Known about the structure:
Layout: H1 3-13, E1 16-18, E2 21-23, H2 25-37, H3 45-62, E3 83-88, E4 91-93, H4 96-106, E5 111-118, H5 126-141, H6 150-164, E6 175-181, H7 190-204, E7 211-217, H8 219-230, E8 234-238, E9 241-246, E10 253-261, H9 262-269, H10 293-303, H11 307-313, E11 317-327, E12 330-340, H12 342-350, E13 361-369, H13 372-383, H14 398-407, E14 417-419, E15 435-437, H15 438-449, H16 460-467, H17 479-496, H18 508-520, H19 531-543, H20 546-562, H21 577-585, H22 587-595
Parallel strand pairs: 5-6, 6-7, 11-13, 14-15
Antiparallel strand pairs: 1-2, 3-4, 3-5, 8-12, 9-10, 10-13, 11-12
Helix pairs in contact: 3-8, 5-7, 10-12, 15-16, 15-17, 15-18, 17-18, 17-19, 18-19, 18-20
Amino acid sequence: MNIEKRHRFWYDNHRINIGGIFVDPITQKFLGEFCKLFEIDEKKTDTAFEHFCNYCCVNKENGIVDIKLEEISTGKNAQGIDGIAIIVNHKLVTSISEIEFQIQNSRMLDVNFVFIQAKTSSSFDNTLMLNFFEFTKSFFEGDGSEFTTSEIQNFFEMKEFIYNNAEYMTESNPKLSMYYVTTGKWVDDKTLVKVKNRNEKELQNLNIFSEIKFVPCGATEIQSLYRGTKNMLTAEFKFEKYIVMFGDEDSDSIGYSGVIPFSEYKKIIMGDGDSLKPVFDDNIRDFLGNRNPVNKAITTTLQLMDKNSFCMLNNGITIIAENVQITGTTAVLTDYQIVNGCQTSHVLYENRNLDGIEELLIPIKVIGTKDDITRNSITKATNSQTSIKPEQLEALSDFQKNLETYYSTFEDERRLYYERRTGQYRLEAIPKTRIVNIPQQIKSVTAMFLNNPHGVSGNYGTIVKAVGNKIFNANDQKILYYTSSIAQYKVERLISEGVIDKKYNKSRYHAMMLFRIYVSGKKVPRFNENKMEEYCNKIIDTLFDEEKCKSIFMKIIEFIVAQDEIDFNDRKTFERKETTDLLLNKSAELKRYIDGQ
Length: 597
């Protein structure tokens, strides 16, 4: 028996039956681990596998991101497709409002459509692959009338909005990335390759994509993708011209300053597949686009290839890493973020194919530290020369550290994990559904305690501007922040478990506000008042009474649906203040409805 046949024999005889399907033990282990991380019922094997594949493939395309699995799922009744992710300007977007924000913020559209089909079969099927391609062609060619599920309709509307704003596609048409995943092995079967090549060509003939990528993933490939979701961010590059700014190898913090060519810098910002790494999450500003005057000037300098001017006029890049190790001329960064230089990095990336750019010298500062005070002071200092408003620096305040500590006082089923710093829980075996990052916290508290659920559907940067100094004040009772996070966790669990239909997901922030009013009353104590403790504890106790919590949320959703003025088919309904005002005015009626009076 030759080596290939021995491998095939081992594989066929070590596959395990789970819920009527067979998977190898490694995929089984990873799938089980994933289900625990996202609190998914392992018995629902097909659904669990779809979520698993969606998560892995989207991470591959857009780096390690916070993904709500329901928002990239196409639902139970979709034929030929199991997951869709739309990535705009390197951000995962889930609504037209978020795309609008990207246009307003950067005046550009850089789009990647990610389509996923996940099947638990042990082989690649000709018919299923053809169905996958047919759905994709229909999605981009058709008028959308054939799509009856709310999930697909939402994705279709987002696609239409993108192409209707094609004037902002300044660099190229959208990319299309298609992943077909099974638990078997892709062996370049002639029939399958023929189907792949023919349908790729038909998609190319639509002339609406700059690039089409079809990726067949077997068990080995999906295992590799899952491992990649758990890896800490690392970068290795040559750092030949540097000086030590402060510290030494035995210090808690050490800093280096120097220059590196773009050929090395791109190893820091770019991952596999020519995409940007998720290294800008701790940067205070998003990319402002190539039409921004400063970025336009940088682009002009690059296109003229005025290398001396670029290095002399550019403020440089500041990188903070958990660990920096330099051996000879080789530097290795571990768990790092670019805290200043987002604009420059994106412009360099957009111009990465210019002749001569590989030799362009880029000024960089690299700081290795585990100390939060040092991190925060560096981030504040490197952004102080710009028009950053105080509320945008709030993520760096002591309040956030104290809030993280407060969250840690809860145990068992009441435990949530407050993430002050991007990826701080990445390597810990805790459920990702229980991690609350700063954008999520801002949205939940704004919706639930500021009576502004209509204002949280877009990018959280606009929400920060709207709430100003109303939140995260030093004397605020921290229990109200935890309460809003628990409420969001509970309602989203009811949606993900199918207790509340996913089509009502867009009303969840309004439901949280109404839950608070029903349980503790319409009038909210001042955030720094002692009476806030009692007000919130009533809500928390009700949230952890499982049957009562479920009953109240279901009644609230029923009440919202029953309002003639509210149209769930209108994507703007829950973004209007009028909807919030309507529900606030009917809060007494809601109480009678829930109490059965």
